[in-house]
Design brief:
Topoisomerase II, domain 5, 4 domains, 17 helices, alpha+beta, four-stranded mixed sheet, single chain, Topoisomerase, domain 3, four-stranded antiparallel sheet, Gyrase A, domain 2, 29% helix
Length: 811
C-alpha cells in the first residue's frame, strides 16, 4: 500500500512563501487602490453591482441589505460587515470629497456615530459615479471570472473621473500603507488638460494649477512645504487647522466659533477633549463648550471667560486638541498589478491620462466594429430595397427560410448576415419614408466609421477628446475649493506661545526663595495700611509681564536671566522656589537687584547704579545672550548693584540716597562702556550714606520715596533740576540736592523710583507684609518735607521696598 509522495520542505521556506502569498493577496485584493480608477476591489464591486441592478442616479433607492447581498453573493465573499462599511464610506460627504454612493437614511456622522443597520438604509449610485461606469459595456476594460466562475466582473472601471486624485484613498496592507489626500475636481481637470498639452510640465507649473489638497471638511492648510513635498516626492506632512473665529455671544461674552474641522477629525471627541482640558485646568479661560452643529453645518462654540485672551487660548487648542492635525501623505497605488510607492501627483494624473487613452481607443475600436457591422447590414438592406419585387418573388418560391436565405446570398452576392437581415425586415420598410431612413442611417454610419478610423489613427485627436470630456466633467460636477491654503507655516508652539500676557508680582525673599503672584492677591487699602502677608521676609519686589525676561544682578556684578513665567505661581503664604534651583548661582552669590526687560532692541541702554554711587551705561543688546551668566559690571570692594533700569539714548537719570539726597542728569553724559568695565562716580556720598534708588525720569512724573519707618511722599520731578554741567568722573561726583527730610521719626530712605500718581503701589516690609495703596493716597510734597505715614508697621518690622503697578491695573 503506497503512502503517496512525500516532499521534504524547510519550515522557514514554507512560512516565507505562504506569508508572501498572503501579503500579496492583501495588497492586491483588499487594501491598496488601483491607480487607474482609484478603487479597492470591494469598492469597485459595490459600484459594479449597483450598476448591474440598474441603480442609476435617477432610479429609485434600494435597500442597502439587498445591495450588500448582491455584492456578497456574486463578487466579494468576505462578509457583509466590511462590504456595508465600504459602501457607507462611499456615501459619506465628510469622508469623500465627491461621494460615489447616494445614501438615504443614517449613514453615520462626523461625530463617529455608527450608521443604521443595512436593513434600514437605502442607496443608489451618485450622479458622479456614472462617470466611472460609462462605456463599461463597450469592451473598454477586461473582465475576469468571479470567485466561483459563474459570472464575470471588471478588473477596473473605465472611470472618466480621476477618482484617485479627487477622492484620495487610505489603506494598510502587509508591509505597505497608502494615504492619499483628496483634491478639487476643477483643479484636477485643469491640470489634466494642461498636462496633455505640456507633458514635460514642471512641478511648479502644476502647483500653480493644483495648489494643494481640498478636503471635504474644509479647514486651513498651514504653509506650502508639506504640499510641495507631497507633489514632488509622493510623501509629506500637511498641517491642517480648523477654521475658527472670535464672535460676540448674546450674553456679551467672546467665543471661539469653529465652523470647519481638519479632515477625519471626530467632532464629538474634539468637544469632549476640550471640555476635559477645561475642567482639568489645562486650558484656562474656557467658560463653556457647546456643539451647535446642525443642517447648516458645523458650529462648535467655545465660550470664553471675561479675562481670557482668545488668540492665546486658540494656540493652546491647536497644541492640545485635534483642532490642528497633520495629514501624512503617502502616495502608493497598484500600477500594472504591483504596489508602487512615492507616486507624485503628476504621475497619478499621467497614469489617468494614459488609462483614458487606452479606454477611448478600446471604446472606439468597439464602436468601429459595431458601426462596420451595421454598415454591412445596411448595405444588404439597401440592395433589398433596390430589388424588392425580385426578392419578394424569390422568397415566395423558396421551400423554407433556409432556402430563401441561400437563394438571396447566391442571387445578390450577400453574406448570411445580410440575407438574414433582409428576411427579418418588416414590410413597413417598403414605404418610401422608411426607405429614406435606411439610406440616411447608412450615410450616417459611414460618416461615423470615417470619424472613428480617423480618431484611432490620430493619437492627438484622442487627447483632444480626453480634454473635451474633462471640460464637460468639470462643468457638470466641479465646485469651488473648500480648503484654504495660507503661506504661513504652522510652527511648533513653544511654551511661551501658550502663556498669557498678564502682570504678575515677583517676590524674592531674604532666604533666597522666589515666587510670583497675581495682582488680584492684593486689595487696595487706605493709608496707613497694615497690609497682608506676602510670605517670608522679602529682599526684592517687582511687577512684570509674564513674558518679560527677569535680570538678576548679584553682589559680584554678575547677571542671570529667567523668563517671568518660569517662576512658579504660588499663594501668598507659600515659601516659593529656591532661586538656586532656577539659576546656576554659586553658594556665595546674593541677588541685590532685579529688572524686568520686555525687549532687547538695539538703541536701548542698560543703566546700573551701585550702593557707593557709581553709575554705568551700556548697550542693552549685550545682554541678549544664551549664556547662563554674564559679567555686568566690575565692582569695587564692598560695592553692589542696587538698581538697574532700561533707558533710551536721550533719557535723564535720577539717583536718590539713603540720607535723602537726589541728583538728576542726562544719560548721554554717561559714555557707554563694555560689560566688563566699571562705572563712573554718579553721586558723591557723605559718610554712612548709600544709594537706595535710581530711575529714568518720566514726563510729568514724580519721585516716590519710602523710608524705613513707613513714611513716604511724592515729589514732582520738575523740582529736581538737571545738572547741566554734570561730567561724571571715575572718582569725583556731585552730591545732588535734598529730596527728603529724613530723621529719627521717619528713618532713612530705603527705596526711591520715578512714578505716576495714577498708578497703584505695593509697599513691602522686611517681614514680608504687603500694602497696596492707590497713588492718590500718597501726598505730593516738596523736596525738604518728611512725607506721610504710608505703612502701619508692627514692632520690629521696617519698610523694605515698593513697586509700581501698571496704570491699567489701578483701582
Amino acid at each position: 500500500m503506497g503512502i503517496g509522495t512525500v516532499r521534504p520542505v524547510a519550515i522557514e521556506e514554507e512560512l516565507k512563501s505562504s506569508y508572501l502569498d498572503y501579503a500579496m493577496s492583501v495588497i492586491i485584493s483588499r487594501a491598496i487602490p488601483d491607480v487607474r480608477d482609484g478603487l479597492k476591489p470591494v469598492q469597485r464591486r459595490i459600484l459594479y453591482a449597483m450598476d448591474q441592478l440598474g441603480l442609476g442616479a435617477n432610479s429609485p433607492y434600494k435597500k442597502s441589505a439587498r445591495l450588500v447581498g448582491e455584492v456578497l453573493g456574486k463578487y466579494h465573499p468576505h462578509g457583509d460587515v466590511p462590504v456595508y462599511e465600504a459602501m457607507v464610506r462611499l456615501a459619506q460627504d465628510f469622508s469623500m470629497r465627491y461621494p460615489l454612493v447616494d445614501g438615504q437614511g443614517n449613514f453615520g456622522s462626523i461625530d463617529d456615530d455608527p450608521p443604521a443597520a443595512m436593513r434600514y438604509t437605502e442607496a443608489r449610485l451618485a450622479t458622479i459615479a456614472t462617470e466611472m461606469l460609462a462605456d463599461l459595456d463597450k469592451d473598454t476594460v477586461d473582465f475576469v471570472p468571479n470567485f466561483d466562475g459563474s459570472l464575470k466582473e471588471p478588473t477596473v472601471l473605465p472611470s472618466a473621473l480621476p477618482n484617485l486624485a479627487v477622492n484620495g484613498a487610505s489603506g494598510i496592507a502587509v508591509g505597505y500603507a497608502t494615504n492619499i489626500p483628496p483634491h478639487n475636481l476643477g483643479e484636477i481637470c485643469d491640470a489634466i488638460i494642461f498636462l496633455i498639452d505640456n507633458p514635460e510640465a514642471t512641478p511648479d507649473e502644476l502647483l500653480r494649477i493644483v495648489p494643494g489638497p481640498d478636503f471635504p471638511t474644509g479647514g486651513i492648510i498651514q504653509g506650502r512645504k508639506g504640499v510641495r513635498d507631497a507633489h514632488l516626492t509622493g510623501q509629506g506632512h500637511i498641517t491642517i487647522r480648523a477654521r475658527a473665529q472670535v464672535e460676540e455671544t448674546a450674553r456679551g461674552r467672546r467665543a471661539i466659533v469653529v465652523t470647519e474641522l481638519p479632515y477625519q477629525t471626530n467632532k464629538a471627541t474634539l468637544v469632549k477633549k476640550i471640555a476635559e482640558l477645561a475642567r482639568g485646568k489645562k486650558l484656562e479661560g474656557i467658560a463653556e463648550v457647546r456643539d451647535e452643529s446642525g443642517r447648516e453645518g458645523i458650529r462648535v462654540v467655545i465660550e470664553l471667560k471675561r479675562d481670557a485672551q482668545p488668540q492665546l487660548l486658540l494656540n493652546n487648542l491647536y497644541k492640545h486638541t485635534p483642532l490642528q492635525s497633520s495629514f501624512a501623505v503617502n502616495t502608493l497605488a497598484l500600477v500594472e498589478g504591483q504596489p508602487r510607492p512615492n507616486l507624485t501627483l503628476q504621475e497619478l494624473l499621467q497614469f489617468h491620462i494614459d488609462f483614458r487613452r487606452e479606454v477611448i481607443a478600446r471604446r472606439s475600436r468597439f464602436e468601429l466594429k459595431q458601426a462596420k457591422d451595421r454598415a454591412h447590414i445596411l448595405e444588404g438592406l439597401r440592395t433589398a430595397l433596390d430589388h424588392m419585387e425580385e426578392i419578394i418573388q424569390l422568397i415566395r418560391r423558396a421551400k423554407d427560410t433556409e432556402a430563401a436565405r441561400k437563394a438571396l446570398e447566391a442571387r445578390f452576392s450577400l453574406s448570411s448576415i445580410q440575407a438574414q437581415a433582409i428576411l427579418d425586415m418588416p414590410l413597413k420598410r417598403l414605404a418610401a419614408l422608411e426607405r429614406q431612413k435606411v439610406l440616411d442611417e447608412y450615410a450616417e454610419v459611414l460618416q461615423n466609421i470615417a470619424r472613428l478610423e480617423d480618431l484611432l489613427s490620430n493619437p492627438r485627436k484622442i487627447d483632444f477628446l480626453i480634454q473635451q470630456e474633462v471640460r464637460e466633467l468639470k462643468a457638470k460636477a466641479g465646485d469651488s475649493r473648500r480648503t484654504e491654503i495660507v503661506e504661513e507655516e504652522a510652527e511648533e508652539f513653544e511654551v511661551e506661545d501658550l502663556i498669557p500676557h498678564e502682570p504678575t508680582v515677583i517676590f524674592l525673599s531674604q532666604q533666597g526663595y522666589i515666587k510670583r503672584l497675581g495682582l488680584e492677591s492684593f486689595r487696595s487699602q487706605h493709608r496707613p495700611g497694615h497690609g497682608i502677608s506676602g510670605g517670608d521676609g522679602a529682599r526684592s519686589l517687582l511687577v512684570a509681564d509674564t513674558h518679560d525676561r527677569i535680570l538678576f544682578f548679584t553682589q559680584a556684578g554678575k547677571v542671570f536671566r529667567l523668563k517671568a513665567y518660569q517662576i512658579r505661581a504660588e499663594t501668598r503664604t507659600s515659601r516659593g522656589t529656591p532661586l538656586m534651583a532656577l539659576l546656576p548661582l554659586e553658594a556665595q552669590d546674593r541677588v541685590t537687584a532685579i529688572l524686568a526687560v520686555s525687549d532687547f532692541r538695539p538703541g536701548s541702554y542698560l543703566v546700573l547704579a551701585t550702593a557707593l554711587g557709581e553709575i554705568k551705561r551700556m548697550g542693552l543688546e549685550a545682554f541678549n545672550s544664551r549664556a547662563s551668566s554674564l559679567l555686568a559690571m566690575d565692582l569695587a570692594q564692598g560695592d553692589e548693584v542696587v538698581a538697574a533700569r532700561v533707558a533710551p539714548g536721550e533719557a535723564e537719570v535720577l539717583m536718590a540716597s539713603r540720607q535723602g539726597r537726589a541728583i538728576r542728569f542726562g544719560a548721554d553724559c554717561l559714555r557707554p562702556r563694555s560689560r566688563t568695565a566699571g562705572g563712573f562716580c554718579g553721586m558723591k556720598l557723605d559718610e554712612g550714606d548709600r544709594v537706595v534708588g535710581m530711575d529714568i525720569v518720566v514726563p510729568d512724573g514724580y519721585l516716590l520715596q519710602l523710608t524705613a519707618k513707613g513714611f513716604g511722599k511724592l515729589t514732582p520731578l520738575r523740582n529736581f533740576p538737571v545738572e547741566k554741567y554734570f561730567r561724571p568722573r571715575i572718582k569725583h561726583g556731585y552730591k545732588g540736592i535734598i529730596s527728603f527730610r529724613a530723621g529719627d521719626k521717619t528713618g532713612p530712605v530705603v527705596a526711591a523710583a520715578a512714578v505716576s500718581p495714577s498708578q497703584d503701589f505695593l509697599f513691602l516690609s522686611a517681614q514680608g507684609n504687603v500694602v497696596r495703596i492707590p497713588g492718590k493716597e500718597v501726598s505730593a510734597q516738596g523736596r525738604s518735607t518728611r512725607g506721610v505715614q504710608i505703612m502701619d508697621l508692627e514692632a520690629g518690622d521696617s519698610a523694605a521696598t515698593f513697586a509700581a503697578l501698571p496704570p491699567k491695573e489701578k483701582s
